[in-house]
């Protein structure tokens, strides 16, 4: 019953309030009919393409009575953002740290899961096989994870210094908590403080985000240079070499 003038825009609000961490799907269907009740003279024939047949309402005389627009909606529940995990390392050193991330509310219902296969994970644009997480049945949970950066500038500073790999998965079926254990490597070349976010998605539905804070402290002193004076108002000179680590 909404009247729409020619070239007028119509905004349709969609509210999503998930009750569980699973995939939700819906379809918004918009039907348009002429205000005077008349049909469009366009006739859907056997030669018409499939889209035309699917998106129109045909009257008894073969004319077009209404036009349909179909918009699929996929809802992905997102868990509240968790507390930051701090990875600290001295510049020009290498820190390797195991990080446990808890995924709360994972759905154990095997009927909601896709066909079981090799669990794929996304690790800074590289994929590899990972162990499967099962609940004792044939249902298999698969997870995708990715390290995201707040800006391209932070990406350029951190991407070559940080590595993350999923090494272990544990699932408590009673509490519906999945524990993912990551091995995080941080090898900074200079003092810095930057942030990144581990984004984890379950193929059965649900999205979790875990902030990581990377802190590189001041490096150790390379050497101590002693300059001895040869006399008052006279210059003393000492030489030392600096080697660049890059081109």
From TrEMBL:
A Pfam family recorded for this sequence: Ig_CFAP47
Swiss-Prot/TrEMBL GO biological process terms: sperm axoneme assembly
Superkingdom of source: Eukaryota
GO cellular component: cilium
Domain CFAP47-like immunoglobulin-like: 78-217
InterPro entries cross-referenced by the UniProt entry: Ig_CFAP47
Name of protein: CFA47 protein
